[in-house]
Specification:
Amidohydrolase family protein, five-stranded parallel β-sheet, hydrolase, Metal_Hydrolase, single chain, TIM Barrel, 13 helices, about 20% strand, alpha/beta, 18 strands, hydrolase activity, acting on carbon-nitrogen (but not peptide) bonds, disordered N terminus, Amidohydro-rel
Length: about 450
């Protein structure tokens, strides 16, 4: 049985409002949109007015990674010193900092640091050093994980079906898998017969009754699931899980101290999702959120993964016109990035106000791309996502935190998401200043995972 950090120790105690009820071709279109007006409700029920009071709930969630453990077979490399670099440490910006990577870790952060023996010195003038990024919604496969690493995304949170999970996790633990992003996975998704997810050519155990929830979650735990994904999707004629089954699945996930993440995109489905004590939404909704539903999300203290790039028509993506981005993508994967997304002008018109409202309400927004759907891709899709968050009103620093320290804190990834002494040597060197101009993230000139330099050239 594969476990990520284990569930014996709780990463933190969360107190929030809760409900009272006791590869590319295969995964294309993994986010179902709901633009069919016959499936979207309006009025008090859709706006959250039918949810009623939300009682207090206190529970414990296990960290995905409890602490820092250097892989025993990590390649031996010389120390690296970044001299005089602008540092975004995951939260704050420091000008003219020195950072040393040694033995797989961040060995020191400061100014005027002494040079270790055999050190390789990197002149940081005009450059910014940022933590390895975390994509909080992907559908992972090894080729795309290598692509992600070339753009500085060194951790991917998979929400359905990853190839060779056991082997990949073993490599992450023993060698550091320094040529690709780490992956954590839900392994499968909870859905109804003829529900969203059943269209993919992979086996899925569906549910028809809440009594099946405990067994379904236990099977995912045995597969090594890091969290549980639940589908509430009624668009385009999909059958959807009943509300009592959703509640039972969330409860079963929490019995194992696992986070319950719900896929819902329409207003109607999001309202159903918010009737259970979920930990997060896998998508920012594509229907415009009324103020009381935004307030409900904020009151519950849950996170929302943005996946906003899928709601943005492809013509709006400046990364497609930047050779620094396009030249680093495997030719076989370029078509997915260039392909038109499912977005319409209507979805784009709703997405930006939703992100603005959620951010203003204090909701934790985690950057996630939902690759490998059409119109997005590993690594480069994160550049698009963060630019959208800035367009929606975040500062560049806030946007970058949504891909570094914030998901690390949210999922209990205690060893990454920041550049600080004793943490993993996962860093990205950027030409320019993305803390002032977010599109400077296109200028990745170096990536180090566990202090080992990643080859940025397309194989």
């Amino acid at each position: 049985m594969i476990r990520y950090g284990g569930c014996m120790e709780a990463h933190r105690t969360v107190s929030r409002r809760a409900f009272a009820l006791g590869a590319v071709g295969v995964l294309a279109a993994c986010s179902s949109t709901n633009n069919d007006p016959t499936t979207t409700t309006s009025g008090p029920e859709a706006a959250g007015g039918g949810l009623g009071p939300v009682p207090e709930f206190t529970g414990k969630l296990a960290p995905l990674v409890e602490g820092v453990t250097v892989p025993p077979d990590l390649p031996v490399t010389a120390p690296t010193l970044f001299r005089g670099v602008r540092l975004f440490d995951g939260e704050e910006v420091t000008e003219a900092a020195d950072v040393i990577l040694q033995g797989g870790l961040v060995a020191a952060v400061g100014a005027g640091l002494d040079e270790p023996d055999g050190v390789e010195v990197v002149d940081g003038a005009g450059h910014t050093l940022v933590p390895g990024m975390i994509d909080s919604h992907v559908h992972a496969f090894p080729q795309a994980q290598a692509l992600a690493a070339r753009f500085g995304v060194l951790t991917e949170l998979d929400l359905f079906s990853v190839e060779g999970l056991s082997t990949q996790v073993d490599e992450q633990r023993t060698t550091g898998a320094t040529d690709r992003a780490d992956v954590f996975s839900a392994t499968s998704m909870a859905t109804a017969p003829d529900g969203h997810g059943t269209q993919f050519r992979v086996p899925i155990d569906t549910l028809t009754d809440p009594s099946q929830a405990v067994g379904w979650v236990e099977e995912r735990v045995a597969e090594g699931a890091a969290y549980i994904k639940i589908v509430v999707e009624s668009g385009f004629g999909w059958a959807s899980l009943e509300q009592d089954t959703v509640a039972a699945l969330v409860e079963a996930a929490h019995e194992h101290s696992l986070r319950a993440i719900i896929h819902a995109q329409s207003l109607e489905d999001t309202t159903i999702a918010l009737s259970a004590p979920l930990d997060g939404l896998a998508h920012a909704p594509w229907d415009e959120l009324p103020p009381d539903l935004v307030a409900r999300i904020a009151e519950m203290g849950i996170f929302v993964v943005t996946t906003a790039g899928l709601a943005q028509p492809t013509r709006h993506k400046p990364a497609l016109d930047d050779d620094r981005v396009m030249d680093r993508i495997d030719p076989g994967l370029l078509s997915s990035f260039r392909r038109a997304s499912y977005a319409t002008d209507a979805t784009w018109a709703a997405m930006l106000p939703n992100l603005q409202a959620l951010h203003s309400a204090g909701v934790s927004l985690l950057a996630g791309t939902d690759n490998s759907n059409p119109g997005t891709i590993s690594g480069a899709g994160m550049l698009v996502e963060l630019a959208i968050l800035v367009e929606a009103g975040m500062t560049p620093v806030e946007a970058m935190a949504s891909a570094t320290s914030l998901p690390a804190d949210t999922f209990g990834l205690a060893d990454r998401g920041r550049i600080a002494e004793g943490l993993r040597g996962d860093v990205v060197l950027i030409e320019g200043d993305p803390t002032a101009e977010i599109t400077d993230l296109h200028g990745v000139v170096g990536v180090w995972k566990w202090g080992v330099s990643v080859d940025l050239d397309v194989a």
